[in-house]
Design goal:
Radius of gyration: 34 Å
Structural class: alpha+beta
Shape: globular
Distance between the termini: 75 Å
Strand order of the largest sheet: 8-9-11-10-14-15-13-12
Strand content: 5-15%
Number of strands: 15
Number of helices: 40
Largest sheet: 8 strands, antiparallel
Length: 915
């Protein structure tokens, strides 16, 4: 009789059941407890030796995942058989065995399928004919204790045949586990009877409901795991496009067609041989990854986290290539397999849909409400776009693009068999890449006012997108090995196009009022859509992807049918797509030189509008949580300031006029007369009035007036407009006040995203900080605000050593340790007319700003503002500095010393000093 382990090579090297059974049988021990202990110790040695052999084989041939998974199940099988024989023959031999004293041991779940990772649960079931007898209870209990002594994590059930049928009918999870049930040892007749009853009483006639249940279960699982197969830390077992999706296909095939092996899905017509090869390749690769993951972690671990990705890439012998690290190549290979699983699922369900077509609605798919007439030769099959015959694409390959344009135009789905044909024939589109009609149809899809994201995703799934635009094909399934980007490059791009369409339609007006309002002013919407498509097209090539991407745009846009002027604009947008976010998040927008430098590059109001919207969709498509009110405010401020310069030139309100307008408005809001305003104005340097917006000026004035002669006062209130908490500290100025406050805010659990430091002419510091919690939200709870105030008071009054409290604070983001970020310091004396601008890049970690500020304190410079931007594991902190006399820092040796101190602090080498 063939078993599923027949193809496993040299099985006795894993475990020699006969030799082990004979050794245990030769034990002459009368004491049952001692016999069980001794035999269990021998089985444990065999388990360890078997696992070591399997791990050795996997290390030698790291891509043989299914073989490793089969070997684990084979090893457990042999040990269970020896153990059951020992218990039923020597520990609890039946004296006068009745018909009820029969027992069958079955493997269920993944173990039943004959596939296990090194630390997978051992899922077993005990079957009895009727109610359990005392003998069966003893045997089962003894088995379980022995398995626990072996250190195995056991999932078990014991049921009579009647209980098995009743519970399987009532619970789809139990039914699925039993569906994969496999005889391990015991009474074969009892197992055969169980199988016959399961088929006759449980599965027969319930196929359609089982499929619906499994698809619903799959959808819930996908939502829980991120609802895309392109999350950059995927779950190899439960994620979208992962092993569980493959298992679901097998379960459905087995339930409907009673197949025993995945290969038989070809025989029943659910897969073509080529599709089964894809299935088997993905199955094998994912099992290899999962087995390596378990071995690397030393426990059951199914999440492919950043720190594990490097390790697994190394174990599976991926190597670096120009422009692409080994870990990125490994993850791209992973995502390509996940993509295959998605395509196979669509084809598989289409076949089942046809089988059950006569019985009612399609599986969870909407019915078509209207019937389009002009279908260019395509036909409708139950509301889905289908082919009139199998050679339809080969007759005219432009149809490979047209099918997606028609699906978008008429709001219909593409029949999975048509999608399958598109996947098969995708290479034919190579011949029509330069065809004007094909490019016009593609541009129609890309710039669709309906739902371009959905149709482009279908086009990507079939492989047509990557063949028609080969530059896009190069970034399909390409991950970016960092904590900032949540998705692969192609997924990020398609999501960005979807966001763009939603902004244009007004669906995101509440989140993006400015972008929605200016969209109608854009002269060429297709320029914007093409720029979003191409903005990251050159990632993974080595070099600056903005510069390389601009070159790609200059080559591709004429092919798409764009004019020379449009091509120039797209190339400019791709070249500068990071300019606006870099300026808004890393520069002081109250410094007029920042705005002038920005507008010198932008040069036109049209480009400014295009760049703002491109920047917004790029940030939002990075992943959940990357967009917030603070970023909206900064981008809005930069847009308005730049738009004013572009509209009026450099002759708009001068510095003096802007200051005077702010002071006049403040006097009106505070109900001050001219003398009161003059007294207040005299206390502050001119830079204060330029740096702070009017609402903060008013808040500061009220706070200072309320505090009177106090030498230390702290205010914290939610600043909803900016998605942060505004913390204002009014205290007697002294050296090092800024780094102490920064450390205190961290101790209280806050992250500083912006800081402005002012000193009055009478020796008081008035510092404004914008603070968020670690999740990018304002500090809003009363206890949080109280904790913040107390921490700052303690730090400024030197109550308790700040350094001890900083060291005691746990690291909240240890995942960042998986990335090597080389600290970098850029000093720029041209970015501002009045300040030296210093930009520090380092790995994000607790109290980084505190340590950098301490290094600046040691360097005897004055901090006027600090701006903090975080990109996953990478932090970029920018400081606007002068020397103690208020001038730029111009001396070469002094700049070198400053750079060295900041590099040490960025690398964490100055922690002990920042106290």
């Amino acid at each position: 009789m063939s078993t599923r382990f027949d193809t496993l090579p040299n099985r006795r090297a894993i475990v020699d059941r006969r030799a082990l059974a004979e050794a245990i049988a030769a034990l002459e021990i009368d004491d049952p407890a001692l016999l069980r202990r001794t035999a269990t110790a021998m089985l444990k040695d065999a388990l360890d030796a078997g696992r070591a052999e399997i791990a050795r084989r996997l290390a030698d041939r790291p891509s043989r995942g299914l073989e490793a998974a089969n070997a684990q199940a084979f090893l457990i099988d042999q040990l269970l058989r020896i153990l059951l024989d020992l218990i039923t023959q020597r520990l609890y031999p039946p004296t006068n065995r009745t018909a009820g004293e029969r027992l069958s041991l079955i493997a269920v779940g993944g173990y039943g399928r004959g596939e296990m990772a090194p630390f997978s649960d051992v899922d077993i079931g005990f079957l009895t004919p009727w109610k359990q007898t005392p003998w069966a209870e003893q045997v089962i209990e003894s088995m379980l204790y022995a398995l626990w002594d072996l250190g195995l994590k056991v999932g078990h059930s014991s049921r009579s045949l009647d209980e098995m049928v009743r519970q399987a009918k009532g619970d789809v999870t139990i039914r699925t586990a039993l569906l994969e049930g496999r005889f391990v040892w015991g009474d074969t007749a009892l197992h055969d009877e169980a199988i016959a009853r399961f088929k006759a009483e449980v599965t027969f006639g319930t196929e359609r409901q089982f499929i619906a249940d499994k698809l619903a279960e799959r959808n819930v699982r996908h939502v829980k795991m991120g609802d895309t197969r392109y999350v950059v830390e995927p779950n190899v077992k439960e994620g979208k496009g992962a092993l569980r999706d493959l298992h679901a296909l097998f379960w459905i095939g087995k339930y409907v067609y009673d197949v025993d092996r995945a290969a038989q899905l070809v025989d029943v017509g659910l897969f073509t041989p080529a599709e089964y090869r894809l299935f088997n390749r993905a199955d094998n690769f994912l099992w290899a990854v999962r087995c390596h993951l378990h071995l690397a972690a030393g426990r059951a671990e199914d999440r492919l986290t950043f720190d594990m990705q490097r390790e697994i890439a190394e174990r599976m012998r991926f190597s670096d290539r120009p422009g692409k690290a080994a870990v990125e190549r490994f993850m791209q290979y992973y995502f390509l397999h996940a993509k295959s699983v998605g395509a196979l699922t669509g084809v598989f369900l289409a076949h089942l849909d046809e089988k059950f077509a006569a019985r009612g609605r399609r599986f969870g798919l909407p019915q078509l409400r209207r019937r389009p007439r002009k279908l260019a030769g395509f036909v409708l099959d139950r509301g889905r776009l289908a082919l009139p015959h199998d050679g339809f694409f080969a007759e005219d390959p432009v149809r490979l693009i047209e099918i997606f344009q028609l699906a978008d135009l008429h709001g219909v789905e593409i029949h999975p068999l048509a999608a399958r044909a598109a996947t098969r024939d995708a290479k034919l589109v190579d011949d029509v890449r330069t065809d004007p009609r094909a490019n016009a149809l593609f541009l129609d899809v890309l710039t669709s006012p309906r739902d371009p994201e959905l149709v482009l995703r279908w086009m990507n799934e079939t492989g047509v997108f990557g063949r028609f635009v080969p530059d896009f094909g190069r970034v399909v399934a390409q991950m970016q090995f960092d904590m900032y980007h949540h998705y692969t490059v192609d997924e990020h791009t398609i999501r960005a196009i979807g966001l763009l369409a939603r902004i244009e339609s007004g669906a995101l007006a509440a989140d993006h009022p400015l972008a929605t309002a200016i969209f109608d002013q854009i002269l060429s919407r297709r320029v914007l859509y093409v720029a979003v498509l191409l903005h990251d097209i050159a990632k993974g090539r080595g070099g600056d992807h903005s510069i390389l991407g601009a070159a790609v745009a200059e080559r591709l846009c004429p092919r798409f049918g764009l004019s020379r002027a449009e091509t120039e604009t797209v190339a400019w947008l791709v070249r500068h797509h990071l300019l606006m976010s870099a300026t808004a998040f890393k520069r002081d927008l109250s410094d007029f030189k920042t705005i002038l430098d920005f507008t010198a590059v932008v040069q036109s109001a049209e480009r400014l509008r295009l760049l703002l919207i491109l920047t917004i969709v790029d940030i939002r498509a990075v992943g959940p949580g990357t967009w917030n009110g603070w970023k909206r405010q900064l981008l809005g401020d930069l847009f308005e300031a730049a738009e004013e310069v572009l509209r009026l030139g450099h002759k708009q309100k001068g510095r003096g006029e802007r200051i005077e307008a702010k002071q006049t408005n403040l006097a009106a809001a505070m109900a001050w007369d001219a003398d009161a305003l003059a007294r207040y104005v005299r206390r502050f340097p001119e830079a204060y009035w330029i740096a702070e917006p009017e609402d903060v000026l008013l808040h500061n004035a009220r706070f200072v007036a309320k505090m009177g002669e106090a030498r230390l006062a702290i205010d914290a209130q939610v600043y909803a407009q900016r998605g942060a908490t505004l913390v204002t500290v009014y205290a007697a100025d002294h050296p090092g006040i800024f780094y102490r406050i920064a450390g205190a805010i961290h101790v209280a659990g806050g992250n500083i995203i912006d800081a402005r430091i002012h000193t009055t002419r009478d020796g008081m510091a008035l510092d404004n900080f914008l603070v968020q919690d670690p999740y990018g939200r304002p500090f809003a709870e009363d206890d949080q605000l109280a904790r913040l105030r107390t921490a700052i008071e303690d730090a400024l009054a030197n109550r308790g050593k700040l350094i001890d409290r900083l060291k005691a604070k746990p690291l909240p983001r240890t995942r960042a340790d998986a990335f090597a970020i080389e600290p970098n310091v850029l000093i720029d004396n041209k970015a501002s007319n009045r300040f030296t601008v210093v930009e520090v890049t380092a790995r994000d970690r607790p109290a980084l700003l505190n340590q950098l500020a301490h290094a600046l304190f040691q360097s005897k410079v004055t901090i006027h503002s600090a701006h903090v931007a975080t990109y996953g594991e990478r932090a970029v902190d920018t400081f606007y500095l002068t020397d103690l006399t208020g001038d730029k820092i111009a001396s070469g040796p002094r700049l070198k010393t400053l750079e060295k101190r900041l590099l040490d602090a960025a690398a964490g080498r100055a922690m002990e000093l920042a106290a």
